[in-house]
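Researcher: Let's do a round of design. I'm pasting the structure tokens now; please hold your answer until I've finished.
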């Protein structure tokens, strides 16, 4: 397989990296931490998606992954900068998640109390992905408190996303017959 793009630029050897807007920042910068955590969450969602069998759930997760790429682009540009991405996390994206949260909450009828994770491998992949999304949410909250992001829908999206992933993990723990009833 021929690779057309050069992967190693060697420009990060000094501990600095470039943002989409061109600024160079240290690799420990909060924006880089957010982007790395977002990449981790996206990778873990990809692992979960690869393990799942339900096509509908796979499609939901794939769309979420696309939203996380959009979010990463938003993190990589300066607040109010002229190089702002054309696509942003929107109220419609949050509402899209909320519809699934409501649907799965109603159909799963979860018992009160805490749920022990690890009932099966598929749900465990989702549980790990959810904890990674929560890490992104914590970092994003810090970015907001430091006035580094302006899009109010990013935090809402991340909060709803962790709810949805929890519900998807619960769905994966259902027997196949029960899953068909829910779908």
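Researcher: That's everything. Go ahead.
Model: Designed sequence:
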């Amino acid at each position: 397989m021929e690779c057309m793009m050069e992967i190693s630029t060697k420009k990060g050897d000094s501990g600095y990296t470039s943002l989409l807007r061109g600024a160079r920042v240290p690799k420990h910068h909060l924006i880089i931490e957010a982007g790395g955590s977002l990449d981790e969450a996206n990778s873990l969602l990809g692992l979960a998606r690869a393990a799942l069998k339900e096509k509908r759930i796979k499609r939901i997760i794939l769309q979420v992954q696309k939203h996380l790429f959009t979010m990463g682009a938003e993190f990589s540009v300066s607040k109010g900068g002229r190089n702002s991405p054309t696509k942003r996390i929107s109220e419609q994206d949050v509402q899209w998640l909320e519809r699934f949260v409501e649907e799965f909450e109603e159909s799963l009828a979860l018992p009160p109390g805490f749920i022990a994770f690890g009932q099966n491998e598929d749900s465990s992949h989702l549980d790990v992905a959810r904890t990674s999304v929560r890490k992104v949410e914590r970092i994003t909250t810090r970015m907001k408190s430091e006035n580094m992001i302006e899009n109010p829908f990013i935090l809402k999206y991340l909060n709803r996303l962790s709810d949805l992933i929890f519900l998807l993990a619960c769905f994966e723990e259902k027997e196949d017959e029960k899953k068909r009833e829910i779908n």
